[in-house]
Design brief:
Number of strands: 14
Radius of gyration: 17 Å
Helix content: 10-25%
Largest sheet: 7 strands, mixed
Structural class: alpha/beta
Length: 259
C-alpha cells in the first residue's frame, strides 16, 4: 500500500490495486471561515485566521487523478468542502458514514453514494466502519457523529484510519478486533476554548501506541485549521521522550509512505 498524506485529514491511499481519497478538503489556503464564533461554534484559537491555514502540497488535479472511491468520515468542512464537491466527478463512488450524510452528498449532485457498513466490500477490499467520538462530554453536541474505517485485503497489511476521535474504549476495541498493522491517527488535539479535545492529543496517541505497540502509526490532522492544539514539533518531542519515534511518524504535508 501507499499512503500519501495531503493536508489535515486528507489522504490518497493506494490499497490492493485501488486508489482511495479520504476526507477531501481541497480549498485554497485562506478561503474558508475560521472555526469559532463566526460560524456559530464556541470561541476557538486563531479566529483571526481563515482556513485552511496552509496550501495543498500538490494540485487538485494530481490529488483526484484516477481515484476509484472517496471515503467521507463526516461532513465537517475540513473533511468535505465545497472545493472537493466541485472538483470530484459526480459519478465517482463515495462512501458516507450514515444515511443523513449520504443524503447531503447526493443533494450536492453525487450519484453513486453508499453508506459504509461494518462489512462493506469494494472491489474485493473489505471496508469496516468503526466508531469514533469527536470529543468528550458536552462538546459532542457540537461535534456530532463521526466514523473511522479499517481496510482489509488478503494481500495487504490491515490499515486503520481512526477518523476524528479521541481515545476511548471503542478505539481499543477496534484495535483488539482487527489488529491493524498500520494506523493513521488524527492527532492535532484540535479544540475550542471550552470543552476539551475534539480529536487525539499526545496522551491519547500514547494510549493508541500502547494498544498497538507493533503497529506503524502516522499522525495527521495537524496545523491545518485554526483550532489545532498540538504542533508537529511538540508531538515529535513527546514521542522522542517516550522512545516511540520508531513506531510513530509525524509527516509534513505531501509526504508518502509505502508498506
Amino acid at each position: 500500500m501507499n499512503i500519501h498524506h495531503i493536508r489535515n485529514a486528507t489522504a490518497v491511499v493506494e490499497y490492493a490495486g485501488k486508489k482511495f481519497l479520504i476526507d477531501p478538503m481541497l480549498s485554497e489556503k485562506g478561503t474558508m471561515p475560521p472555526f469559532g464564533t463566526g460560524v456559530g461554534l464556541p470561541p476557538a484559537p486563531r479566529e483571526d485566521q481563515n482556513n485552511p491555514l496552509v496550501s495543498l502540497p500538490t494540485s487538485i488535479d494530481n490529488i483526484i487523478f484516477n481515484i476509484d472511491a472517496v471515503i467521507v468520515t463526516h461532513l465537517h468542512p475540513d473533511h468535505w468542502d465545497d472545493a472537493a464537491k466541485e472538483a470530484l466527478p459526480k459519478e465517482i463512488k463515495i462512501f458516507a458514514q450514515n444515511d443523513n450524510d449520504a443524503t447531503e452528498i447526493r443533494n450536492a449532485g453525487f450519484k453513486n453514494v453508499e453508506v459504509l457498513k461494518e462489512n462493506t466490500v469494494f472491489e474485493a477490499i473489505q471496508l469496516i466502519k468503526t466508531k469514533g467520538e469527536h470529543g468528550r462530554g458536552e462538546i459532542l453536541k457540537h461535534a456530532g457523529e463521526v466514523c473511522g474505517v479499517v481496510f482489509k485485503h488478503s494481500k495487504e497489511k490491515t490499515l486503520y484510519f481512526t477518523g476524528d476521535t479521541v481515545w476511548y474504549e471503542a478505539v481499543q476495541e477496534t484495535i483488539d478486533a482487527h489488529k491493524p498493522e498500520i494506523i493513521v491517527a488524527n492527532a492535532g488535539n484540535n479544540q475550542f476554548l471550552v470543552g476539551g479535545s475534539l480529536i487525539m492529543g499526545q496522551e491519547d496517541l500514547y494510549e493508541l501506541y500502547k494498544a498497538a505497540p507493533d503497529a506503524k502509526i502516522i499522525t495527521v490532522h495537524m496545523e491545518a485549521v485554526n483550532h489545532w492544539g498540538l504542533s508537529r514539533e511538540e508531538l515529535k518531542s513527546f514521542i522522542n521522550e517516550k522512545g516511540i519515534s520508531s513506531n510513530v511518524s509525524v509527516p509534513d504535508d505531501g509526504e508518502s509512505y509505502s508498506f
